[in-house]
Amino acid sequence: MTTYKMETQLTQIGNGFDELGAVSAPIYLSTAYRHEGIGVSKGYDYIRTGNPTRSILEKAIADIEGGEEGFACSSGMSAIQLIFSLFKTGDHIIATRDLYGGTYRLFELFAEQYRLSFTYWDGADDDTLASLIRPETKAVFIETPTNPLMREVDIVEIAAITKKKNLLLIVDNTFYTPLLQKPIADGADLVIHSGTKYLGGHNDLLAGLVVSNVPEITEKLRNYHNSYGNVLAPFDSWLLVRGMKTLALRMRQHETNAKRIVDYLRSQLLVTKVYYPGKGGMLSFELSKEAYVKPFLKALRLITFAESLGGVESLITYPATQTHADIPEALRLKYGLSNSLLRLSTGIEHPDDLVNDLDQAFRSLKKGVPVHG
Ligand SMILES: *Cc1c(COP(=O)(O)O)cnc(C)c1O
Questions:
Q1: Which residues are catalytic?
Q2: Which of 23, 47, 318, 357 could be stapled to 302 by a disulfide with Cβ–Cβ 3.0 to 4.6 Å?
Q3: Rounded to two decimals, what is the model's pTM?
Q4: Of all helices (H) and strands (E), which one includes residue 193?
């Protein structure tokens, strides 16, 4: 079989599936499938257990991430929840500290309700990671680049430790997508996506994906996915496939635009720090005064102040009160997530228009705004 490059694999998802030759794969809404006799099935019985449209998506993400099997879930959070059904009371998990706020909130809930325990580490120092491992440690959970400080965590180095200590390595690959990072090839066991972000890509869909590359774990996840029922609906599965077809094209423009904006921000006097890992479409920056945040957001005309990322429209987020509001302020400030930090998800608009929008907002600040904002 020919192995195609990822751009081709993405574009071709679902093509060739339909017996009538439909290029865009059909959406199967049926909840039930007729059986020719007892114990005779064409592979599908009941919608929660398996759905042909969802299967196309699950197979595609498994192939693209280079894993064994994929599971499509109703949201990124439910994808994380699916993986966490592998753990039991008393288990310990080490996670990167600079996490998506909703993930942190879910971990706090697991700690409270199921007595899982969590240790957060900066994702940088392997010796520190090794020293945090206890007999009851079961997994290392990382987001790379970290969110919102955009630090890259070295998956290969961490995998060397988790393999030696027999721990699961779970990577949230939402920000880079498989185009920019292949966690399984780097040694991860499980990959998570919020399909709501780059894979969907149009700010119009909630979805999550898990890819497993460990046979015993895959077996368990298949059972939990069906048992809990946190599965993705057929229409949403189709919508996610449609989004993924243009991922490569979109990602190139996201990155071009992000680089242009980073250059602009680095020359802007009212910006004290710019966080950009050198690839992808996500960046963060710090304004010189917290009091500038409010008028700056208000002055933007094209870039939308809204809480998500990875779509064709540029969105700007204020992590302190939005995505990361559930992380205690003292903890946030300690690791560098300040109250002057803004996170920008660059869309695929023309870069000149994005830079001009930022520039007119900065000019309005310089004209003088009340410092109490
Ligand atoms: C948004 C997000 C999630 C949660 O996904 P939902 O689809 O919103 O449930 C998890 N991880 C990261 C990195 C995210 O950005």
A1: 48, 100, 172, 197
A2: 357
A3: 0.95
A4: strand 190-194
